[in-house]
Amino acid sequence: MSIRILLVDDHQIILEGLKTLFMQTQGFEVVGEARDGRSAVLLAQKLQPDIVIMDVTIPEVNGIEATKQIVAKTTNTRVIALSMHADQFFVTEMFKAGAKGYLLKDDDFDNVLVAIKTVLNGKVFVSPTLSDLSVKEYIRYIPEVEPDTAMLISLSNRERELLEFIASGKSTKEIATILHVSTKTLYTHRENIMRKLNLKNSNELIKMATLLMMHKK
User: Fold this and answer.
1) Which residue from 148, 153, 145 is spatially nearest to 207, judged by alpha carbons?
2) E strands of 55-208, at which residues?
3) Per mean pLDDT, which range of 72-76, 92-96, 154-158 is the poorest?
4) Which of these ranges, 62-66, 81-85, 97-101, 205-209, has the smallest mean pLDDT?
5) What is the spatial distance between Cα 70 and Cα 61, in angstroms, rounded to a whole number?
6) Contact, 81 vs 70, CB < 8 A?
């Protein structure tokens, strides 16, 4: 019997690439594809796949929250993160949500296959690229990070709205189209948010945006 896979990523080229690779590999069947977290949860409940390959920053419901819901609403489905983010925050939050594996998008497909077999055997898999910390440390170290309430109050409604779109994984161009503003205006809002929240770079901005959405649920 084939291992049944649900693929979740908001980039069509990633979905098509993974689907092709699985189709060329004996013993695997891609039973569904989703481009946002809400659809992923619904498909996981309907299809009950063996494995969900989950991107972390996806629209509607982010990968962390989607993983929580899938784990809660399915019986034997296991989630493996496949992300561009190597930051410890995303790794630990995905494990905290119930994921059993964490891969990076620049890993070889062989690692994906090993990860699937590993988690189906009841073990945890972490990308070799992240081997600077042991699997046990990734699982046990859950950073107690809380958004600073005073700083959040300082954000305007538009800045909060922008953070929500960032957390959903939308690109700057997509956000600009939705909000009917120029990309230059968006970059100004981003700079203001980073200044108000004392964030140093885009990675910290994404982390804060994700935290806000998690605490908002």
Assistant:
1) 145
2) 78-83, 101-104, 125-126
3) 154-158
4) 205-209
5) 12
6) no
Q: Is the pLDDT of residue 169 over 50?
A: yes
Give the domains, in start order, of the chain with CATH numbers: 3-140 (3.40.50.2300), 149-216 (1.10.10.10)
Write out the two tokens for 12.
């069509």
Please report the pLDDT score of residue 150 as a whole number. 46
Whether 201 and 152 have beta carbons less than 8 Å apart is answered as no
Half-sphere exposure (CA, 13 Å, Cβ side) for 123? 9
What pLDDT, on the 0 to 100 scale, is given for residue 151? Answer: 55
Backbone angles phi, psi at 216, to 5 degrees: -75, -25
SS3 12: helix
DSSP 129: G
